[in-house]
Automatic annotation (TrEMBL):
InterPro entries: SAM-dependent_MTases_sf. The lineage of its organism: Bacteria, Bacillati, Actinomycetota, Actinomycetes, Frankiales. Keywords: Methyltransferase, Transferase. The keyword Transferase applies. It comes from Parafrankia soli. GO terms for molecular function: methyltransferase activity. It comes from the Bacteria. GO terms for biological process: methylation. This is Methyltransferase. Gene3D superfamilies: Vaccinia Virus protein VP39.
Amino acid sequence: MNDAWPRRYADEVLGGAADGERRRLAAMAAVCDPVTTRLLDELGVTAGWRCLEVGAGAGSVAAWLADRVTAAGQVTATDIDLSHLAGLSAPGLSVLRHDVTRDPAPPGAPFDLVHARFVLEHLPEREQVLDRLVSWLRPGGTIVVESIASFPVASSPNPTFRQAMTAIEQVLARTIGTDSTWARGFPGPLRSRHLVDVGTSSHLPTTGGANASAYCWALTLSRLRPHILSLGLATADTVDRALDLLTDPAFFDLSFATAIAWGRAPE
Ligand SMILES: C[S@@+](CC[C@H](N)C(=O)[O-])C[C@H]1O[C@@H](n2cnc3c(N)ncnc32)[C@H](O)[C@@H]1O
């Protein structure tokens, strides 16, 4: 246990086997997979690649990778919590319970591709974890890191939405040590590790019209509600009104951005 962050990701904060978490991961995938898979396609992922999907969640990206690399390649989908990966099956795909902060390199290393989405920002030891991920690349192998970025919620014209989303950011920072500002420095963490062909982009989904992003944030806010209230980060009334907004087909705003950075290990 860390004195500064009394809990880890799955310690009753997020994660777990509940159906609500499955729906939250599915909504996340609906919002983000098109962006992720387009980038992976542009980066040349193809038949025969050996891929590591870190913190695979419900495995939607791992399934896409398995289809892309075919049985000639291999995909290792890892997570500390396999609750939502049990049904994942494809030729060349294996699922592994694995703590990326401390377990040895997964079987299959070194990899042609290492991908982690919405994982490192939640781990206080993210810099050491990034060192580990880079060390698991083969020469010329590609790493892609995606992280929530603390932008542009603070400029929301809707005070209820702004306060509730800020409370999500603060409660994760105070309970598990999430850093939603880390990705503002992308692609710095990859440049400083001497990767080549480094690039970056960002994705800023509209949240509203009761779309998948709004649903995902509503489930996240509901899940974090007790922690937000016990830490006094927002009132119950604010949280409830924000939940109403997130199910209102007439409400639209921008939620957190996703920052994406990629690079290749030198040959
Ligand atoms: C926000 S979810 C993202 C899931 C998936 N990557 C996606 O984008 O759809 C974060 C995932 O990281 C996993 N995770 C958290 N800490 C981890 C650790 N130390 N090692 C491996 N996975 C971890 C969680 O269990 C969870 O499945």
